[in-house]
Amino acid sequence: MNRKNVIRCASIVVASMFAIGTVFAKETLAEKKDAWKQYVGKPAPSGWRVNVIQPDPENHGPDGFNYHDWDGDGDLDVFVNFEEGGYSRLYFNPGKSKIRELWTDYIELERHGKCEDSGIGDLDNDGDIDYVANGGHVYFNPGKAELRDHKKWMKMTLFKNEARNPVVSDIDGDALNDLIVGAKAWYKQPVTNKQDASNWKRYELGEAIWPMSCFVTDMDGDGENDILVQERRRQGLFYYVNPGKDKITNRWPIKVIDAQPSGMFAAYGDINGDGRLDLVKTGDKIRIFLRTNDNGTPVYERIEVDIPVQPASVKVKPKPKGVAILEMNGDPTYPEIVIIPEYEAQLWYLTRTGKGKWTNTLMDMPAPESRKKMDNAFLVDLDGDGDMDIATTEENGGWGVIWFENPSKK
To answer: pLDDT tens, 203-223?
Structure first.
């Protein structure tokens, strides 16, 4: 065989191998995206199940979970925004008998573009809950009679750039809900013509680059709501101090609780049974902040808890991301701290075992390695059985919008 034929044969072999490899890669990718089908709804030894509201085979990236009974049938429906897909959907709860099946009844709103995080609340004072996609886009609820007509949801664009964690709350005490955007500014709800963006006046709070969590709560016990923020690039865990009604439209003073950068989500609640609101922040380790005073600027005792050893099927170092406070072990003395890891790892929870001591317990959710990127932990009783389930979104493993079904019975 001459040199040209040898080269030609070698080229054919290489091309064939590449083609086979490409087909195999596509099949492998497809198989990975369909992994949820093997495990969805199957109970683990502990009884926990992973249920899928809607899968995400095309990586449209669901990244925001809001629940409310929008259609008034007694079951909780779910509003989800898709970060890469650039759209939002309202999924209607199929009812208790079909709750573990896919939720196929939904409406999709007018596209808004790339969107991370979303929020809900009544922003036109008509008693109906409206929807906010990533701060800048508000969709006004048309009422139950026209709820399922996506064209009836009036869209108002306040701005077009992303502003994470929109929060609806009455900031200035006038009994009208306002809108916090990006944990750095708020828009005042106007008295009239509420669906006209030009009537919504913006006021700056301060600086934040990448807020993960934003809560409206009274941090110092003075009777005025402050704004608690977990921010992963600039100031860490901090809160804006409410300056009082006379200065409410000025920038708010800042109190930093934990300046650690690169933290993820935060949660707050009484986790040691002393009646005070404590804080939990996820990062390389879990940071717990136990409040030691009742009023005034909060004082905390900080405790760090290492991450647990994962099952053999998990090949990555788990990165704590989502967090919630929930009773898990049947002992109501202290609630547990539920942790959702970001990548390919098993969920776990922390239990208080003594002063300053916490232990980790892995939750045996099926196929932890198949979920490639999860979000925050949202506590919601989706199946209406009286106990809290854990909902989240999964962006890159095909699972999509999911909820972990609590097996406990009250």
So the answer is: 999 999 999 999 999 999 999
User: With 50 as the cut, is the pLDDT of residue 187 above it?
Assistant: yes
DSSP one-letter string for 265-284: -EEEE-SSSSSS-EEEEESS
In whole angstroms, what is the distance from residue 94 CA to residue 149 CA?
A: 18
Q: Is 24 helix (H, G, I), strand (E, B) or coil?
A: helix
CB of 350 closer than 8 Å to CB of 286: yes
Map residue 299 onto helix, strand or coil: coil
Mean predicted confidence (pLDDT) in 73-98: 97
Phi (first) and psi of residue 54, to 5 degrees: -155, 130
Contact 237, 257 (CB under 8 A): yes
Q: Give me the sign of the Cα torsion angle 320, 322, 328, 333.
A: positive
| Other beta carbons within 10 Å of 311 | 11
Alpha helices by DSSP H, 243-349 = none
320 in Cβ contact with 346 (< 8 Å): no
**Contact yes or no for 226/220 (Cβ under 8 A):** yes
Q: How far is CA 119 from the centre of its chain?
A: 10
Residue ranges in 194-303 assigned as alpha helix (H): none
Residue 224 CB partners (closer than 8 Å, separation 6+) = 218, 242, 244
